[in-house]
Amino acid sequence: MELQDRKCVMILNEELPAGVLANTAGILGITLGKKVPENIGPDIYDKDGREHLGIVALPVPVLKADKEKLKAIRERLYQPEFAECVVVDFTDVAQCCQNYEDYIAKAAGAGGEELTYLGIGICGSKKLVNRLSGSLPLLR
Known about the structure:
alpha+beta, about 35% helix, globular, about 20% strand, 5 helices, single chain
């Protein structure tokens, strides 16, 4: 898919404090960068010849929703029509763990109905991403 046909968004739980919001956005961004590396532009150089590593080559709006809306969006993303989307979520289970092994164990014991989403990152066709997020306001 061409870059101009793609859209990425982050949808964060508007009820979270600023520090948790920032942490959630960082985690989602790192994982989206890993899973969709073609969204990252090339390294660039300023006029002094100093290198600046490539950043995302398309805008990534950061939107807000309450926890119920986040859960509903995440559930929709499991539907076959959204199979082409890259989706990363960050939950209360992940946030409370001290290490990745703990996260693996706790996630394996938690059903979807038990999870509270702190944020979701979505990357896919503009049409699909807009269908899920087009009516959501920006996080300010």
